[in-house]
Amino acid sequence: MMRKLTDVFFKHLFSMVALFSVLALGAILLFVFFQGTKPFLFATSSYIKLVVRNIDELTVNGVLYKDRLEAIDIPETAEVISIRFPVINGEGVHSQTLDIKIDKNEKDPAKRLIFTYSGNAVTSYPYRGEAFVHSVSWPHAEGLTAFAALDKRINIILPEPAYNLGKFLSGLRWNPTTDKVYGILPMIIGTLIASFGAILLGVPIALVCALFMAEFLKPKAASIIRAGVELLAGIPSVVYGFFGLMVIVPFVRKTFNIPSGNTLLSAIIVLALMILPTIITIAETSLRAVPLAVREASLSLGASKMQTAWSVVLPHANSGVIAGIILGISRAVGETMAVILVAGNSPQLTFNPLESVRTLTSTIAMEMGYASHNSLHNEMLFSIGVVLFAIILILNSFILWFRRRMEQEL
Hints:
alpha+beta
């Protein structure tokens, strides 16, 4: 009876854990996909936002706001924004005014707002390079820039329209701060070339090493090398990146006599080194799992040990070998820190292995920290994550299809 209750308890426990894991994974994917597709479906906001500085009390379209720290939301349908706030100086208390007329038919954010103001106000556009931000300021002291931090200022933030998906995927320029241009084609090409280059360089070496360990080394020596390879698989990627920065980058610079060794070639070499332990470990385990009878049958027919290993054992273990290659591709495509350290991180379209490139993951890692929350820039970084997920999904699906085809032929 006790055993039956225990079985029922663990059955329900495992079911709940599995269900929770699936729901959590689904929620994460939905969140990323929603954030990544939102910039192509909606504007960044349905409001025009006012951000005030050094103004304790103001009236916006007849509504009084005091000590406003967060943005004031104005519906995008508004045609006029009327702002009043008191100013105290040597002449007493008087009111400063700012009237903003919104041209609904104007697409250019630089011409969409028409300002009418009192006092010695100064308008600026774009404010700090932001293409959808206008600024109006009232200097604290005429001609004294030392008091600029005390200027009364109102920033008007316009909603950024939905971005064009084709322009995003095929654009050649990535400039999120000044021009608000988000083209990721150079980063897609850089990611694919770096990943495929690492696969072409690393997979043959990994298969040869796995075959050598599984078929030609004595069990004791193989176990020692296997432990070392598994240790290499657990080394953090930043360590590989540091090794590449200190060894591979100077080697590439001196070998090809170029100004900088932070190039696509350096990234390919580092990624190839990183995927070697993963592919070797999984492939060698699959090779050792091939039944001894298969080897003996091949040897009894007169095949050499090398012919048996390459033409008989390896095809029988192709399922595990391809699984290792898939994991290697996923790590190469998704690698971040090592690539940041050695690739140079220039968002330019190039096929020259001796020039600097930037990958999709590098862009996310370097820019997520300073992209404003809920801005188009922030959402575009989520979109890059969706593109990265799609690339890995397509590559893995192609490899799985290729494996099924090979199994049918065998």
